[in-house]
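Here is the promised in-class demo. Please do not try to memorize the tokens; focus on the logic of going from shape to residues.
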């Protein structure tokens, strides 16, 4: 939950930054973000969205993996390799 809060908060900060720069919420009035904000407009929000989705090597992956491992262990009765078994 901590990682989800961090990555979701970062996405909301991106939206706030975009609004502060353009003073509009309408995407059609942005006129492109690549020229005025090349890194902030493209790479950073995509990276943060990937972290929120739980891709490997990003902050949401550990929580997503543990949720899936616990689900498979509960439904099948067999744990994933390396997963802790409960008594």
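The designed amino acids, position by position:
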């Amino acid at each position: 939950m901590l990682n989800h809060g961090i990555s979701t908060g970062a996405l909301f900060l991106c939206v706030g930054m975009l609004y502060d720069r353009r003073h509009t919420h309408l995407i059609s009035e942005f006129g492109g973000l690549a020229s005025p904000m090349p890194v902030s407009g493209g790479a950073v929000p995509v990276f943060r969205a990937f972290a929120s989705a739980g891709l490997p090597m990003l902050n949401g992956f550990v929580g997503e993996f543990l949720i899936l491992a616990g689900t498979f262990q509960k439904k099948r009765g067999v744990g994933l390799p390396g997963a802790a078994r409960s008594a």
